[in-house]
Each structure stands twice: as C-alpha cells, then as structure tokens.
Amino acid sequence: MYQEAIEQAVNHYRELLLAQVERAEKLNNQAPLEKKEKTVIGVVGGDGIGPIITAQAERALKALLKDEIAAGKIELRTIEGLTIENRLAVGKAVPDDVLAEIKACDVLLKGPTTTPSGGELLESANVALRRELDLFANVRPVSVPEQGIDWMFFRENTEGEYAIGGKGIEIPGLLTMDFKVTTVAGTKRIARAAFEYARKNGKTHVAIVTKSNIIKKTDGMFSILCREVAAEYPEIQTDEYFIDIMSANLLKPAMRSQLQVFVMPNLYGDILTDEAAQIQGGVGTAGSANTGDRYAMFEAIHGSAPRMIARGMGDYANPESILWAAVMLLRHIGMPEKAEKLSNAIDTASKVCPVGTTPEGHTCQEFGDALVKEL
Ligand code: IPM
Ligand code: MG
User: Are 325 and 58 in contact (CB under 8 A)?
Assistant: First the structure.
C-alpha cells in the first residue's frame, strides 16, 4: 500500500547519500589558503533584536579599529538583506546576492536570524551559512571563575543531525525519518581543532561527548576518530562521556573544575552549550565563533527574540552575547590586545550600566554608550 511512497523515499535517500559522498570527498581535497593584505569584516544585522544588538557591537569595533580602518587594513562592511522577510520572499535561507556579498568578506559579525519552524521548510540561515562557508568548528567559551568553571566547547558545526536536517523522508500517515551524517574528514578536523586548542592553551583534559552506546554508526565513528586524534596528544587526558550524563555533570560542583575542553557532534553541542551558557548567567552572555579554513563567523548564541520585539521591549535587548562574539572575532584576526580591551569594557559596562527592564536596568543603546566610553 505504501509502495509508491517507499520508492520515492528510496530514490530521495539515494540522492542524499550521493550528495554527502561528494561533500565528504571534497573535504579530503581542500585548496590551501592565500594570505590577504586587508581583512574585510562583514556586519550582518539579522532579525528581531539582531540589528539592535549588532549596532552596538559595530560601534565598538569602529571605535577599536579606527586606525586600522583609516589605514585601509580593515574594512567594516554592512551587509543588508539577510532578513526573514527577504528570505521568505525569495524562498532561500540565504538569498544568492547576500551570499555573494558575504563570500566577498573574510570574517562576519552576525546578529541572530529567525528560523521558521515546523511545516514551513525554509532552512535556518545559520545552518545554511555554516554549510556554505564550511564553518566546521563552533567554538563556545563559558567561564565562571568563582565556581572554577573555564570551559571551551568544540561543537562540530556542519554535519551530524544538521547536515540534511531539512531533507528527511516521509511515508505519509505512517512515519518520518531524518538522518545524521558523520564523515571521517569532518570528525578528524573538529577533533584536531579541540586538541590543538588544548595543547596551545596548556589544557590537560578533553571530554569527548557522544551517545555512542545507542547511536552506533555515527557517534561510534566520532568516538573512535576522536580517540585516534587524542593518541597524538599524550599529555592530554581524554575521557568519553555520554551526552545525558554530561548534561548532569555540568551541574555537579565537583566535576565543574575538572572539565576543560569538550568536543562533540553538532546537536549535542547545540544543547550542551545552551546549558553551559545558562550556568554562566544566561544565553545572552555567551558568544560563539563559527570557524573554518577560509571564513569565520561570530555571533550571539541566542535567537532573534521575536517575543521581545512583539512586546515592544526590543530596546532592552542585551548586546553582551554579540559583544563577546566581537571579542572572539578580534582574537581570530590577530588582535588580542584589542580583544582584551573590549572584554574589559564589556565587564565594566555590565556593572555600571546593566541592561534590563528593572528600575535600575538600562537600554541596549545606553549599554553601548557606557561601553564606548571605556574603549
Ligand atoms: C545555535 C542556534 C542555532 C543552532 C539555530 C539558530 C539554528 O541554536 O547557534 O546554537 O541550532 O545551531
Ligand atoms: Mg543553540
């Protein structure tokens, strides 16, 4: 009775598999990078609270980089058009002209973009950009010094459940299936990024997080390949934890200071980093770097907060998360002192001018004013 739907699904699956095989083969044959004279930083506002918080981060970058901008070493380029209205109008996660503008930049500072969920099949702009720019490492720091927390998360960013998340199979009225994809090259490069970070920063422990006891093929291979890479870093202790117990461990005071660097497949990283950010004070306090060999994109880890906009509270959006992303951007482009300066300014501004709707709370703009004074 379901014969026709099954045939269609099998054909669809074949196409998905072929496309993933092609992608995996390309990962093995990457062209080397050429060095550039000038760094172009694209600034993409996004949706909802995105343009409000991104404007303050842009202000901060302009102030910090004014000499480099004047000398033509850095360009800040505003990129319009990555809005939900525009994306729905052309029916594309990232409209072609916007993607071309983005690809002409080197790094991006990006505000959150709205993703329609459920039936509307428009893909998330984030996910599409991560794929298009091959931003394979999602790097998220979380730190709470007074609790001994100093964590760095390496979330695989282009594969796993996200690779073909919008392309599952359906036998109408009976079942649906989605897919998880793990490639050898994709796993090795995220593992290497995590272990290299650990080595360069004197970290002594890396936690591999999977559910390889249940998800045998994909997580199973992720686990084996991470252990293989780990063997090249004998000074670093490596342990594998399953995602469920790791979510509990993050809440366990005795474990917190032992955990340092984490490496994990995409969806687990998505969930665990929200939990970690909440421990730090909320998802609004954490920045996120999406890096690849050619491009890098820095963003807040939270969404576009449409409910906040609907309540007319957009001006009270907290820009800290995107500002932390800007700190990571500055480090990435080789400006650690400026990153430090911005980091200190965010700390000060958050004390003297906390954003919020309480009587002592300030607006996003006022936070930006306090911040720029420190730069
Ligand atoms: C994140 C976000 C994204 C994700 C959304 C906005 C697509 O939650 O960056 O963690 O799921 O990866
Ligand atoms: Mg998330």
Answer: no
pLDDT per position as a tens digit, 256-288: 999 999 999 999 999 999 999 999 988 877 788
Query: Among the atoms of ligand 1, which is closest to the Cα of residue 299?
Result: 9
* Ligand 2 geometric centre to CA of 268 (Å): 10
**Region label for 319, one of left (φ > 0), alpha (ψ between -120 and 50) or beta (otherwise):** alpha
> How much is the pTM?
0.90
| All structural domains of the chain | 3-26+36-135+292-374 (3.40.718.10)
Distance (angstroms) between ligand 1 centre and the Cα of 232 equals 31
Enumerate residues 6+ apart whose C-beta is below 8 A from 62: 69, 76
Is 8 in a helix, a strand, or coil? helix
User: Is the distance from the beta carbon of residue 321 to the nearest atom of ligand 1 less than 6 Å?
Assistant: no
